[in-house]
């Protein structure tokens, strides 16, 4: 069992709890760097997609996992990031190094504006409001055809940085390096945000808005900032998704993508950076696993491979139901329980992680 002795308040806001945790983070980063030398270009493309989904998941995680605000409309902000990134490059001749962060800021401003009238909503009412935003975003993309291309969509040009070209099909390894670097920066900023006063305000609002007000937290302002930061990161992920897809339309960032993004962080584990990555890995690798399994069964039985419509969505939905019923803390929560068991053995208690069924009396007025 590892015991951390805290001798000052600085120990509570360290970037890593102890040296062993820093070692594991560095080891994972080293594995990510060495991945292109171990697998082929196809799997590198899948790894790039995992990182992009993880970025989008971290954006939604700030709002749902850290601040406790439900959202079913984050695909709209992914669309804002993707469309604004391409439009900045085509209509204003901006380089990627300028259009990319501006696309994230554009999505963040849009999120802050939407948060202004919705900061007083809670639970299912907030989810319905964000759901309506996702539906309206698809219609607006079609209506603004002179700008967005309507149903024809937009073509994302190759990324050009200092004379180097990044393309999913032409040089997937270089695109992987770029997305990995962006992911590293976002993870670093995310961890610093959590240990900042703003990050602690997010957690206070999530746990109890009444108690947060009593401690002097401006709840409306905190929710708006959570929306802004969340939508900024999601917009950056959407911009990368646009370049990864090459061609995207209003159907690319639809309601299903919003729901998928929420499923990713729930299955991965709410409230943790690890959860965004675990959920992204499951979502990206699940279709590959289904395809390989189907082809393997077909080769063993001698029958032709049969494609069942909606099979992937059905399996992913079943996985979600299973986690909600048996492991609400997600994949990372299960790993945390296993690790705690071995750290505390033989003093581990079975009910240590039992879900709290009661709630604060101050929250009954919602």
TrEMBL record:
The chain crosses the membrane at residues 21-38, 44-64, 71-88, 94-116, 123-144, 175-193, 225-246, 252-270, 277-294, 314-332. Pfam families: BPD_transp_2 (PF02653). It is a multi-pass membrane protein. GO terms for molecular function: branched-chain amino acid transmembrane transporter activity. Its main location: membrane. Keywords: Cell membrane, Membrane, Transmembrane, Transmembrane helix. It is found in: Cell membrane. One of its GO terms (cellular component) is plasma membrane. CDD domains: TM_PBP1_LivM_like. This is Branched-chain amino acid ABC transporter permease.
């Amino acid at each position: 069992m590892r015991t951390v002795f805290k001798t000052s308040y600085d120990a509570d806001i360290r970037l890593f709890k102890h040296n062993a945790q820093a070692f594991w983070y560095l080891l994972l980063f080293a594995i990510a760097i060495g991945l292109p030398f171990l697998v082929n270009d196809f799997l590198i493309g899948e790894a790039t997609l995992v990182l992009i989904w993880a970025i989008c998941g971290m954006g939604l995680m700030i709002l749902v996992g850290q601040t406790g605000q439900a959202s079913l409309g984050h695909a709209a902000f992914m669309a804002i990031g993707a469309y604004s990134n391409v439009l900045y490059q085509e209509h204003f001749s901006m380089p990627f190094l300028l259009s990319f962060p501006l696309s994230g800021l554009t999505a963040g401003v849009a999120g802050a504006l939407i948060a202004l009238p919705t900061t007083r909503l809670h639970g299912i009412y907030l989810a319905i409001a964000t759901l309506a935003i996702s539906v309206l975003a698809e219609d607006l993309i079609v209506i603004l055809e002179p700008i967005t291309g309507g149903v024809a969509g937009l073509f994302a040009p190759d990324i050009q940085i200092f004379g180097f070209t990044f393309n999913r099909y032409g040089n997937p390894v270089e695109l992987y390096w770029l997305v990995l670097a962006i992911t590293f920066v976002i993870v670093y900023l995310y961890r610093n945000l959590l240990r900042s006063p703003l990050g602690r305000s997010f957690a206070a609002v999530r746990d109890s808005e009444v108690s947060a007000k009593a401690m002097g937290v401006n709840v409306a302002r905190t929710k708006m900032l959570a929306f802004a930061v969340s939508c900024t990161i999601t917009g950056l992920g959407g911009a990368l998704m646009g370049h990864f897809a090459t061609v995207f339309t209003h159907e690319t960032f639809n309601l299903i993508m919003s729901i998928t993004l929420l499923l990713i962080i729930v299955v991965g584990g709410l409230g943790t950076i690890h959860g965004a990555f675990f959920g992204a890995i499951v979502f990206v690798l699940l279709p590959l696993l289904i395809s390989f399994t189907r082809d393997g069964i077909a080769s063993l039985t001698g029958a032709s491979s049969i494609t069942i419509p909606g099979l992937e969505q059905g399996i992913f939905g079943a996985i979600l139901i299973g986690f909600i019923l048996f492991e609400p803390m997600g994949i990372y929560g299960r790993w945390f329980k296993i690790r705690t068991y071995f750290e505390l053995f033989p003093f581990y208690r079975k009910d240590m992680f039992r879900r709290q069924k009661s709630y604060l009396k101050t929250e009954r007025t919602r």
